[in-house]
Amino acid sequence: MTGSGTAHPDVDVVVVGAGQAGLAAAHHLSRRLPAGGSFVVLDANDGPGGAWRHRWDSLTLGRAHRVHDLPGLPLVDPDPDQPAAQVVADYYGRYEQHYALPVRRPVRVAAVTAPEGPQGPLVVATDAGTWTTRALISATGTWDRPYWPRYPGQERFGGRQLHTHDYTSAEDFRGQRVVVVGGGTSAVQHLLEIAPVAASTTWVTRRPPQFVDRPFDAEWGREVERRVAERVRAGLPPVSVVGTTGLPLTEEYRRGIDSGVLVARPMFTEITPRGVRFADGAEVVADVILWATGFRASLDHLAPLHLREPSGGIRMADTTVVRDPRVQLVGFGPSASTLGATRAGRLAALAAVRSLTTSGTGLTRENEHQPQPQVES
Ligand code: FAD
Which of ligand 1's atoms lies nearest the C-alpha of 345? Predict the structure, then answer.
């Protein structure tokens, strides 16, 4: 039994989170840490899969954008009709076993502190004890921080309000009048699923949706990363994918526009007990408001390190936090996709190993994990 008071043996690197980003980082750590080096991956979930484990069943792999391969062990020929939650959880589970990655779960990191100042070790406090480490790779994703904007009257609404985070199935909306808020892919996918069974759907967005007639391919992904990276380098908070490049105009989306389901109204000004009211005074009566308003980075555990700039963002050089180079952030900003997370995981592992070998702190002897032999690149 380990409780929050247990002190675990010191490690050289702690990775927080076992999603795409954390597993990619762990893979490279296991190959790059010099002999005698040690690391551990702490993950809050009950089982493998990262955020994917929580996605709704109708989000099949075929409807997801694309799940990029983790390094070394590809996701071979997955069934596009299977729920992505299941496919990805199975894949990550196989991956952890194949590389014997030292994942500890469920372990939730509550706070990371630096009691001896900027040159000393970091102390990682969790609900299963404390780890002391020289370097930290934070790969905690966004799923735990759904973003709910505030609008006047929100508390008076007599119907149901939920966020994408809690969406399970279109069936829950059968026969209901549904207002969907948000201009991203989740909103679009919710609307297309719900419209055939709902009494009515109304789509509202802060800015008119920008459908862009271009393929949703690797170049699109790279452009998203490029644009978000510019902001993060400048210490500004990252923006959403859609805010960066618009929505790709697929055949399915085109049909949705033609049928009127994917035609958005500007944001309402007020929520009433019966629905929502627009700037012209018109009210749309609703049973449900579904907030598809995105997520924010889960970084609360890093608050004691004061990593934020006055502009509100965290300035980074690649994956390294400029204010505290002991900390690498992955799956954040430009790397918030499975492709970006995979690349960032590698960069973060290399930077963490470099920081250990150049800081002269020496590598820990008490191993949680011995690096695996180098088998492939
Ligand atoms: P996650 O998968 O969120 O993993 C983070 C892990 O950290 C979790 O296991 C969590 O339990 C753990 N954790 C969090 N906080 C703590 C803590 N304090 N202590 C310990 N552990 C913690 N990207 C794509 O490339 N293709 C897609 O099709 C796609 N579809 C998406 C659909 C939706 C609805 C959403 C919201 C996002 C989608 N994304 C997609 C983006 C997706 O989030 C990333 O691709 C990627 O899966 C995120 O990986 P990650 O490792 O950064 O985070």
Answer: 51
